[in-house]
Structure formats: C-alpha cells, structure tokens
Amino acid sequence: MTDKKSDTRSAAIAAGIILLVATAVLYLMPNVIVWLGTFSPWLGTGFGVLVILAFFFVFWLRARYQHRGQR
User: Fold this and answer.
1) In this structure, are residues 30 and 44 in contact, taking their beta carbons and an 8 Å threshold?
2) CB of 51 within 8 A of CB of 26?
3) What is the pLDDT at residue 55?
4) CA-CA distance, 39 to 45, in Å (whole number)?
5) Within 13 Å of residue 59, how many CA atoms lie on the same side as its CB?
6) Could you tell me which residues come within 8 angstroms of residue 51 by beta carbon, excluding any fewer than 6 positions away?
7) CA 51 to CA 48: how far, in whole Å?
8) How far apart are CA 59 and CA 19, in angstroms?
C-alpha cells in the first residue's frame, strides 16, 4: 500500500504545478487573443474557448486518474 503522507505530498505538488501553469497561461491569454483577433475574431474566440476548456480538462483527467487508483 502507499503511504498517506506520500499521497498528500504528490497531490500538493501536482496541484501547485497545475496552478502555476494555469496562472501563466491565463495571464498571457488576453494578449494572445488580441493578437489572434487581428487575423480573425473567430480565431481569437476559439483560442480563448480552448484554453478555458483545457483548464477544466486537466482537472477532469486528474480526477479520473485518482479514481482509477482507488479501485
């Protein structure tokens, strides 16, 4: 069996990494959307939608991975 302390530490490290990457992407997102919007408003909108969906997709994958480990 795995150690509870190790599981907690692993979850905290993963959450920290996800939070840092998401913060960086969301910080840069408005500039990228404006830049893409100069080519096409649809392209800028599509990028924004994909970034937000990717944010939730990462947490969905993480939940699936954790659920699979509990079976």
Assistant:
1) no
2) yes
3) 83
4) 11
5) 9
6) 25, 26, 29
7) 5
8) 11
**Amino acid letter for position 36:** L
Instruction: Tell me the per-residue pLDDT of 14-52, one tens digit each, with 9 for 90 and over.
Output: 889 988 998 999 899 999 999 999 999 999 999 999 999
CA distances from 70 to 7, 42, 66 (A): 12, 42, 7
Encoded amino acid at 17, one letter: I
The model scores a pTM over 0.85 = no
Torsional sign, CA 63, 65, 66, 71: positive
The H or E element containing residue 57 is helix 41-70
Q: How far apart are CA 36 and CA 43, in angstroms?
A: 6
